[in-house]
Amino acid sequence: MSRDLALPVLERRLGAFEEAMVLTQEYSPFNVVVALRLRPAPPVGALRQALDVVQREQPALRCAVAGRTGRRRFVPVSAPLPLSVDEAAGAASFLAAAEEELARRLPLAEGPLLHVRLRRLGEGEAELLLTFPHAIVDAASGIALVEGLLRRLAGEGGDPAPAPPLPFLPARFPARFRGPLGRLRALAALARGLGSELGFQLRTRRAGLPGIDRRARSRVLVLELDEAATAALVGATRRARVTLNSALCAAFLLAARRHLRGGKQLPARLFTMADLRRWVEPPLDARALGAGWAMMRFVVEPGEDVWALARSINGMVGDRLRRGEKYLAYQTILPMMRVGLGGRRFRMGELAVSHVGPAPIATRYGAYEVPELQVLVSNIDLGPEYIVQSRLRGGRLAWGIVYLDTDMSRELAEAVATEAAALLAAGPPSQEVP
Question: Do residues 139 and 186 both lie within one domain?
Answer without folding.
Answer: no
